[in-house]
Amino acid sequence: MPRGEISRNDLYLFCERLRQIIEAAEFAFGDTRLQLTVSLGCHQARAGHGTRKLSIDDWIAKADEALYLAKDRGRNRTEYLD
What we know:
Order of helices and strands: HEEEHE
Strand content: 15-25%
Mean pLDDT: 89
Radius of gyration: 16 Å
Number of helices: 2
Low-confidence stretches: none
Oligomer: single chain
């Protein structure tokens, strides 16, 4: 794997760890304590020879699609979309 790239699995695991950290955290607002959950959608695109160049809007749209997939599958989860 070229320098500066991460695998699909590593990206998924990074996002899943972030989700777990948020779920375990307690947030305080004055006397009010909150625990939050979050759904995450991730997408990874390659740039280089022989690949279609994706715009940032395309990348965001794919990640957004993965986010809605996570919500549809039960929330408080991470989904990866190719």
